[in-house]
Amino acid sequence: MPLLSVTDLKTHYKSRDGLLRAVDGIDLVVERGETVGLVGESGCGKSTLGKTVLRLVDPTAGRIEFKGEDITVLDQRSLRGVRKSIQMIFQDPFASLNPRQTIGEILEAPLVVHKLGDRAERRQIIADIVAKVGLPPESVSRYPHEFSGGQRQRIGIARALLLNPELIVCDEPVSALDLSIQAQILNLLVEMKKEFGLSYLFISHDLSVVRYFADRVMVMYLGRIVESADNATLWSDPRHPYTRALMEAVPDPARPRQAAPLGGDLPSPSDVPSGCGFHTRCPLATDQCRAEEPEFRAIAPGHQVACHFSDHIN
Amino acid sequence: MSTTDIGNFNSLAAGRQAAAEHEVPAPSAATDGPAWSNMKAPDARSQQSAAVVITNGRRALKVFLSNPNALFGTAFLCFVIIVALIAPILYPDDPLSMVGRPFLWPGQNSAFPLGTDSLGRDVLAGILHGSRISLFVGLMATALGLTFGVLVGSTAGYFGGWIDDVLVRLIEIFQTLPSFVLLVVLVAIAQPSATTVTLAIAIISWPTVARLTRAEFRAIREKDYVVAARSLGYGHARIIFREILPNALPPIIVTSSVMVATAILMESALSFMGLGDPNVVSWGSMIGTGRELVRTAWYLTALPGLAIVFTVLALNLIGDGLNDALNPRFSQDR
Amino acid sequence: MAALLQVDNLTIRFPRAEPVRNLSFEINQGETLAIVGESGSGKSLTALALMQLLPRAAQIPNGRIAFGEQDLTKLNARGMRQLRGRDIAMIFQEPMTSLNPVMTIGRQIAEVLKVHEKLSSKAARERAIELLKLVRIPAPEKRVDDYPHQLSGGMRQRVMIAIAVACKPKLLIADEPTTALDVTIQAQVLDLLDTLRRELQMAVVLITHDLGVVAQWADKVVVMYAGRKVEQALPDDLFNDPLHPYTRGLLAASPRLKHDFHYRDGALTEIPGSIVSAVGETGCPFRPRCNQARASCGHHVPQLIVPAADRLVACPFTTSSKAVPHAAALSH
Q1: Phi first, then psi: what are they for C302, rounded to 5°?
Q2: Could you report the predicted ipTM of this complex, rounded to two decimals?
Q3: Distance from CA of C167 to the nearest CA of A (A)
């Protein structure tokens, strides 16, 4: 039984421009001990997907199962048990910590809410976790603004680990950090994964980070998954034109410059194009793409693509 | 204008002296040093820089105390509060009783330093006792309005949806009525007493607080740390009172100081119109009774009037000071 | 040929700190100079200093910014206003906040033209449409009357670029122009900037934290750390053989797309600590984080030395890149 299993999940919002299809029919599985990378550009719905999995946003349709239990319909009270097992790490280390609480208070609250330990035990748990994420013990009496971005992200990680979760949704955990700090945080996440046997749903727009960090990668465009494969396969044999364009667009010092691989902008999720959502920007688009929605199909074991022409791409 | 450096730069500057004091000896020769990939990264030195950054509250206090206007306001308000507290000791008798010859001008008789009114009542005793009712009404009405307004505003802002719709309609009903007319009607219906006046002022002042609180809550509700709190399974009460409210407080505090001033003015206006508590003296009622004699004995209106002006001014200065202190845009520059 | 812009020993001082110290560099006409650094390195302040748009608390106690004949640090407000937008233009990171939300983009572009080229409203509007075409905004005749919120992030940045190049400036300062944009849009915007640079013979100062961008779009790179220039090189040299320990650390720490390295293979190389450790450092600002630091590094700030042609590095102990295996693996 997979740790997390999401079936045909849809999250739609009503907005001024009409119905916004942030997440529009996604299947997703995270196995125990696995890191699933979710890549896409801003506005593709990846953050909404992360929040829906945590039930911070209510899904419109579909099913979310955690360890076989359907959590799609649980009310907030019944969700409390699940909350301990699924945690989240946020992108902005400046916004995700309450500026008016000390680190000690921030870290103690989850323990109090879930009635773990007495005062002394809680203090010990906090001291342990603070040491584990590489912060000095006196941090607990300090306020968030006294820390640098990297240190705050460590605090965010400590908070996520406190309740011994099994799955952590990481929403762009390093993209707000300076390059020299990113590696520190990525290494810490790997260490914690090994130590606590964690599974990650790792959401990022940065392909090179996902390249390093994920076991399996899903590429998202306009609320849908367009390609899914294990890490090695995806980078060596990408079959969706969007995946390729993304990879080509990342400037790499080891590669000569080439023309921008994609023209145009991401269409609005409230006005999704007909047929294949990518046809407005796709260099290979044909009339078929404009009319017919491609099926998300397996082209090899563990490698699925939603493109009519995936066989012709190599 | 966006520049990424300036934000960082403040903390850098603050850390300067501290870091200099804790000079760490350089690591020995490179070959012996640990390869950096094996090093943990508890940015130890930036910790020291953090030590000199004062916390929000204390920084705000410092800014507030360095503002002469705010200090003057606070001092004057303290003075009024002390006067209100010791008035019954200084003038144990009823200030409404006739104690001397009428129309004594200030300074004419040393027993009545501020003179007497048309009925021979001591003006100084009246002003001192009047401060009690002004402060009582001002503070209590604000406290009540604040409590109710914050409760309604936070509920509406936090939950949103139909709860928000209903509560916003309620707020709008109150805000569309001209507030002073409503106040007069309310007091006219009830028996005028200090309590009913207080309640009436509270009833017309809570919608402002509710609107403000709702706006703050709606903004803060979307912040990541609130999402984080939800993801950790916190209950609504905890999120409202522990996570959101402390962050929403600064503008509410600023508003409340001005609310006290407004309440004092409203009480005075009511008393002036003869709608106040007839059994106690208040600044407004003193002006009201002196009104007809303003040409012959102007001091009867001027003296309680000055008391109102200075108290309200003091409260407004405090409000401005709090605004500067609690508004990060001002405190950053210092 | 004399450099278009020459910065000599520029220091920016705030009441309690000096976020930029003794910075020198030069740019020739038509050249792209990249200034790389993380937040706190002083790169954005340097950009603002070139525009003379520093916050009021900032001073320039010493240094010279020579633009042609003029020293910008000595120029009065009026003279600077005439230069800004006409000879030197700037684009910012956040295209949303740097455009006026209540004015159509056409009018915002026309505004610059009216101020500097004294065009009539009608002529300015015509030019605005031409400029929108130049920055490749589709259907410019229609778009010219749009408000900023009707445009996507990439489009807004194009509008910013249109405003910046409206008067054919000699120097364009781009402060993190693509940081707020997605990778596919980033590629488009950088392409556009480069085309315009060639067509208009502009010099471009590209301020960024992204090494990948630097490698592909710059003619010359300055690496800044804690307000100082620590290394300067041609991009190829910098990436194939970084000399300063900080540059090496950065290159080693960044996961790369084409570089086959996975978390199961091992940890990423870290630079320990953070830039805050440079505060109050009397010696080399990078010393607290450097894996090659020696006792002498704490005595004085290292001078820039010239290890090879077209290169500068502020580290006396720099050796061949072979010392750092990860970085060496990067170079083919």
Answers
A1: -65, 140
A2: 0.85
A3: 26
